[in-house]
Automatic annotation (TrEMBL):
This is Glycerol dehydrogenase. The keyword Zinc applies. Glycerol binds at residues 121, 171, 254, 272. It comes from Pediococcus stilesii. It comes from the Bacteria.
Amino acid sequence: MDKMFVSPDTYVQGENVLNHSSEYIKKLGNKLLVLSDETVWKIAGEGFVNYLEQSGFVVEKVTFNGEASVQEINRITKIAKEKNVEVVIGLGGGKTIDTSKGVAMDADTKLVVAPTAASADAPTAGLSVLYTEDGVFDQYKFYPKHSDLVLLDTKIIANAPVRTLVSGIADAMATNIEAKATSIKHGVTMGNGAATFAGRAIAAECENVLWKYAYEAVESNKNKLVTPAIEAIVEANTLLSGLGFENAGLAAAHAIHNGFTAVKGDIHHLTHGEKVAFGSMVELVLENTPHETLDRYINFWLTLGLPITMEDTHLDQLSDEELLKIGKLATAPDETMKNMPFEVTPTMVVDAMKAASAYVKAYKNSHVVTPIFSRS
């Protein structure tokens, strides 16, 4: 198996970067399609489009319907082709961005990714996570090339809901946990190759940055301030986590996240990162992580107010039969669970979910943890 390293062409991060982005975008084309949802249009989209039009670009505005699906990609691709678009710009959250990737590929245009929150590592990845119209996980869609440009405006992100930053931190913390498992297995990365030393180093540095600056970044976000800490965490949540997971591999944490789509219930009120936090906890239990290490992760997640018990994820509402459905989907042959260094069965997943919850509750009984953020 060949070693492989993949990445976007250009990554630009900074305060108010969207307001001087024309110098980067003009290299790609003049006829733009900007994709955003109704909420983001009000927050940042209208101002961004006005700036682009004043800078001489021809802009087609399209409102994202809310689900990253094959049907939504097809709908917007038709518009892009009819308008002879040269550049697709995805402005918003992970599902908007994942949809814009599919549109750019199918319409054969350049792609600009402009996240309005640092809630996940989708911006730098060369793949989309697609769902059915009903929100059930459908597939990982891989593309022959990455985005041409990623724009991270830290002023917008500092003003985004704190929950989005915390969710991104949770998603990013899974990066090195899963990369280490994949490395031991000599598993396959999301780019369908063997991990490079560069990919492993990026995943490790992602975790280092989170340990050092996550709490300060959350406090900055609470106060809508652009600080060195929030700049560091935005980079960790997007660039380091994105390059880390794609070039070093996913394992149990994201497989369990995908397994949750096998059931209905209140767990689907949680964000991607919040679900991945519990999946990461479960992976550490599957790996029989020593308690000194496990306690450090538990304290980190609890301090950030993340849901890492069956009760907090609402999984306690499900029957054992329903939990086993999660385990079966998480261990499906094409899932990233295959990158675990040992065979994982559906029953092992269920037992590890229950054990993870028990360990966290035992930790709470013997330690005082003051969360710096609450989802309620």
